[in-house]
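Reply to dn_fold:

You asked what the input looked like. This is it:
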Amino acid sequence: MKKKTFALLMLCILLFSNPGFAGKLYKWVDENGEISFSDKVPPKDARREREELNERGRTIAIKDAAKTPEQIEQLKKITALQRTKQRLLETQLKQDDALLRTFQSTADINALAKSKSKIIDSHIAIANKQSDTLKKQLLVQQKAAAQFERSGKNIPAKTITNIESAQAQYNRNQLDISDFKLQKEQLAIQLAADEKRFITLKSSSKKPVIDDDSVPSLMLGELGCDVGHCKKLWQEASDFISQKSAKVIFTSDMLILTKTPTLSKDRGLSLTKIVGSETTKIVLDIRCANSKGGKATCKNEQTVQLVGEFNALNP
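and this is what came back:
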């Protein structure tokens, strides 16, 4: 290693001290795995990754290797995923902003919950009284019809119409009661979610962003689920992200983001829920710092293993 470093330094000194040298110095690995240096990259190595070096032999820029058709398609998917993440984040941030402008504390949320619940309870009470009245009216018409049948007479058309009308009104009333009860359940769920979200927002200070400056790993983890299993699978995937990174900076029902990678060893993870007409996808994206070391991290065995472990969560 020392010999190679010394040779590199000597080469840099010779080239940059040469008055006739006004170009750049490149370093790349050829088809034999050997490190090559030159101020010009031969055509046979033009598609390989190469580093641009300064006069001290330090890397100042890296030109990526030419992408394969498969890699180009994967980059298109990742670009589309970034747009989806941006849309989900903007939507959630608007909802969060409205929540923080509406409430000053969790006590405000609970007060609103009680107020709305009382209104729905009053509607249910009124509907129950109407139900008793409609049921009595229906019983009157049914008894009248029974008397005609016991006397061997045909039930008059008007009585049959009255029974059908009373039954229809009673049925509509029962649907109204069910609807009010469902509204009360949904209200409780929504306000509980608002309270939980409010506490989360109060404990966070930085506004998250979708990072486009880092480099993607070109490996996407992907899970599929139907309506009945998505909630459980999303929770498992969320737990996975939390276990693999202690730097979660944003969470919602559709998107999870970790801190933007800054060091070569860092990995930025994101989890995106993409709801389709038939199935839902939960996608893991891994990004690394835009540096030589960061690019190596995005390609190393640990990153490959991380994607494999995530895909193993699939039920």
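The chain has a mean pLDDT of 86.
Hope that clears it up.
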